Amino acid sequence: MVEAVETFDGWYSLHDLRSIDWTAWKYAKEEERQNAIAEFTELLSKWEAVEENKQGSHAFYKVVGQKADFIFMFLRPTMEELNELETELNKSKFAEFLIPAHSYVSVVEISRYQPEKPGEDLENTPYIQGRLYPTLPKWDYMSFYPMDRRREGNDNWYTLEKDVRGKLLYEHSKTGRKYAGKIQQVITGSIGFDDWEWGVTLFAHDVIQLKKIVYEMRFDEVSSRYGEFGEFFVGTIMNKEELANYLAV
Ligand code: 76R
Questions:
Q1: Nearest residue (CA) to ligand 1, atom 9
Q2: What distance, in Å, lies between the first and last C-alpha atoms of the chain?
Q3: Annotation-wise, does 79 bind a ligand?
Q4: Span 91-127, pLDDT tens digits
Q5: 5 alpha carbon to ligand 1 midpoint, in Å?
Q6: Which UniProt keywords apply (predicted)?
Q7: Between the N and C ends of the chain, which has fewer C-beta atoms within 10 Å?
Q8: How many Cα atoms sit within 13 Å of 43 on the Cβ side?
C-alpha cells in the first residue's frame, strides 16, 4: 500500500499581496497620506517586535510587474493570529489605498522521508526547529509560487511508493544544496488550506540565482515528471526607512 509521508509542521503562513490605488493615493490630502504612512510604520514596528521575540516572522517585498505592488509573507504560531493580523492591516488607514491582489495560506512543512535513527528525536533538533520556526531572511530578492505534484496517467506522484518518492526528493535536495548560501527556501504545505499543494518561497542575494535554481530543478525527475507550477511573483526588498520615499507623490 502506498503510504503518506509524515510531516513536521511549523508556523502558519500567509502570503498577502496588495496593489496600491495610486489614483486614490494621489488625490488624498498630504496629511491623510502622512497619517496612513505613520500608522502603517507602527504596524511594521509591531511585526518587528513579534519577530524579535521569536513569536513569528515576516517578509515585505515590492513586487515587480503588474500582478501586485507589495508582497507580505507572515508566519505566526496559529491561524487565528494570521487572521487577526490581516484584519488589523485591513482596518488601517493605509489599507484604504490598497487593493487585494492575491493571498495564499499554508504552513511551514518539512517532510520526513529519512527514517529516524533509534532514540533520535529529529523534530526537536535545533536544525529542524530553526527551519520550522524560521526568522525569514531579509535578503534583497524573493520569489513565491505555488506548486502541485502531478497525478496523470503514468506520472502520478500519489501512486508512487514512499521510498521511491524519498529517493526522488533526495536527488532534488542534492540540486538544492548546490545553492547553499545563495538561495534560502521555505516550503509551506497547503493541502486542505489553499488551491495548490505547496507554496515555494525563495530568497536570494542575487536575483539571477532565483532563475538558475528553478531552471536547474526543472531537470530533476521530481520536477520534470511530477511538478506542476502556478503563478510566480518576484520582488525586491522593502525597508521601513524607504517607505515614505517610495510612497511620495
Ligand atoms: O527538507 C530537506 O531539506 C530534505 C530534502 C528536501 C525535501 C524533502 C528538499 C531540499 N526539498 C524537499 C521537499 Mn525542496 N524545493 C522545492 C523547490 O521549482 C521547483 O522545481 C521546486 C521548488 C525548490 C526551489 C526547493 C529547494 N521541495 C520539497 C517539496 C515537498 C515535496 C513532498 O513532500 O512531496 C517541494 C514542493 C519542494 C520544492 N529543496 C531542498 C530546495 C533546496 C534548496 C533544498 C536543499 C536544502 C538543504 O538541504 O539545505
A1: 173
A2: 62
A3: no
A4: 999 999 999 999 999 999 999 998 888 888 999 999 9
A5: 14
A6: Heme, Heme biosynthesis, Iron, Metal-binding, Oxidoreductase
A7: N
A8: 23
Whether ipTM tops 0.90, in short, is: yes
Q: Please give the grid coordinates belonging to residue 61.
A: 517585498
Residue pLDDT, tens place only, 144-190: 999 999 999 999 999 999 999 999 999 999 999 999 999 999 999 99
What one-character DSSP code corresponds to residue 161? -
Q: Are 113 and 68 in contact (CB under 8 A)?
A: no
Q: Decide if 172 contacts 217 (C-beta within 8 A).
A: yes
pTM over 0.80: yes
Give the phi and the psi of residue 195 in degrees, each rounded to 5.
-70, -25
| Atom 14 of ligand 1, residue of closest alpha carbon | 173
**CATH 3.30.70.1030 at 7-247, yes or no:** yes
Say whether 145 is catalytic: yes
Helix (H) or strand (E) holding 58: strand 57-63
Q: Which helix (H) or strand (E) holds 102?
A: strand 98-111
Separation of 45 CA from ligand 1 center, angstroms?
32
